[in-house]
């Protein structure tokens, strides 16, 4: 039976599986000279993507991968751009000095979270490289100048899919704390979550 909170499935579980596999192949190809990789997942949204990417990287024959997480909470995202939301970051992982790091995030929306997390890491840790891997990029209909600047500052090397400017949930992403366990990515009816 269809969940009444779901407006439309945008990306099926099979499409996600296939894309995660090809992302792992891309990551492996780009890191042919790395002896090890360090993936840092942004909690909570990236947990499912990270788990599948981990298995796909092993299948793709990537160098040994270490896994760690940090937590980012972004407040005030309902206002599209002004004022910019605040980002609170904790559990910054240790041992990333001189490492090849890939930050794994669920979605790039206004760009504020990833901009803050990247700046936070770069200020504290001299890494060998830092790349960004996001499952979803939201194609925003309208952007304030501040959001435009944040989006320009964040250019992920690895992108799973583009999604329209709607609230999406599933595969780790939540709508009002719910639906993270959907196997697909779906647009939700916002009336259930506001
Ligand atoms: P930002 O707007 O790029 O800073 O994204 C803020 C955070 O909000 C992301 O890391 C996600 O965790 C969350 N987020 C943004 N858009 C969505 C969405 O459509 N569904 C679920 N979470 C979202
Ligand atoms: Mg997030």
Mean pLDDT: 93
Largest β sheet strand count, sense and barrel closure: 6 strands, mixed
| Percentage of residues in strands | 25-35%
User: Per the principal axes of the C-alpha atoms, what is the gross shape?
Assistant: globular
Ligand species: inosinic acid, magnesium ion
Calculate Rg over CA atoms: 16 Å
- Helix tally equals 4
Order of helices and strands: EHEHEEEHEHEEE
Q: Which spans of ≥5 residues are poorly predicted at pLDDT below 50?
A: none
Structural descriptors:
194 residues; alpha/beta; six-stranded mixed β-sheet; three-stranded antiparallel β-sheet; binds inosinic acid; binds magnesium ion
Please describe what this structure looks like:
- With 194 residues, the protein is α/β, with parallel strands linked by helices.
- 28% of the residues lie in helices and 32% in strands.
- The protein is built from four helices and nine strands.
- The protein has helices spanning 13-30, 47-60, 112-124, 145-153, and strands at 6-11, 37-43, 65-75, 86-90, 100-108, 129-139, 158-164, 168-169, 185-188.
- The strands form two sheets. It has a six-stranded mixed β-sheet, sandwiched between helices. A three-stranded antiparallel β-sheet has the order 1-9-8, covered by helices on one side.
- Helix 4 links the parallel strand 6 (129-139) and strand 7.
- Helix 1 (13-30) packs across helix 2 (47-60).
- It starts with 5 loop residues before the first strand and ends in a 6-residue tail after the last strand.
- The mean pLDDT is 93.
- Residues 42, 45, 105-106, 113 line the site of magnesium ion (MG).
